[in-house]
Amino acid sequence: MSDFTIEPEQQHMPGEEAEMKEKKKYKVEFRQIYLSKPMVTEADGMTSTLFPKEGRLRNLTYSAPLYIDMAKSIITTTFTGEKDPVTGKDIETEQIVTEEYPKVFFGKVPIMLRSQYCSLHDHTDKELTELGECPYDEGGYFIINGSEKVLIAQEKMEKVRADEYSNHNNNTQQHTHTHIYIQKTTIQWNGTTNVLYTRNDNTRAPMMFMNTNLSHTNL
Q1: Picking from 49-58, 118-127, 179-188, which range would have the lowest pLDDT averaged per residue?
Q2: The pTM of the whole model exceeds 0.85
Q3: How many Cα atoms within 13 Å fall on the side-chain side of residue 15?
Q4: Cα separation of 211 and 199, whole Å?
Q5: Dist. CA 34–CA 186, nearest whole Å
Q6: What whole-number distance in Å separates Cα of residue 109 and Cα of residue 144?
């Protein structure tokens, strides 16, 4: 799935060079992910399937345990102090020790009602009624600490963005590119140079083109 590597830095003392005989790197891999149906763990350690009705009555979070297969690798690079006669580089030996940790408990994930991982998935109307659920409930919400929660999408205006290109340098023939973000904008048309100008903090910047968002904003 994904991984990350940690490489500790050598601890140096002022005025002295650190002699490195070996260097270690630690690599952590996240592999297979396992997500089951919502479960509840009782005080005596017993686990059972959790249904939405029980979550509402007992003020529980309707969630499922998440497990991940993980692996930890220790990569040790040893410097022998000898040089390769062909390349002239220092000869290094590398040793990799890997430990695997299957199905590590990673946490609990709230489950949306009537989703694929919901305990009510693929139940008939009769079975839903016997479980104390309304057959006409479309789901699409979560149960957090016994309360029904729903995600609400909110639209947010994006800042007006314009792309600014600087002029060519005839001597070095370099072309630089930067981005500027403009909130209060006034556009002026200079007929002699055939370019657009925009004002940002009382400064003008030549514009080669404007982002599509700019065309949807009242200036």
Answers
A1: 179-188
A2: no
A3: 0
A4: 16
A5: 54
A6: 11
Domain-located, residue 135: yes
* Amino acid 23: pLDDT: 82
DSSP tag of 126: H
Domain co-membership, 89 together with 145 = yes
Which of 101, 129, 149 is a domain's end point?
149
Helices and strands counted in the chain (H then E): 3, 13
> Three-state SS for 100?
strand
- In 3D space, the residue among 24, 102, 17, 26 whose CA is nearest the CA of residue 67 turns out to be 102
Question: How far from chain centre, in Å, is Cα 174?
Answer: 36
Does some domain include residue 94? yes
- As a whole-number percent, the residues of the chain with pLDDT over 70 amount to 65
Residue found by looking up tokens 């514009």 in the block: 207
Same structural domain, 77 and 182:
no
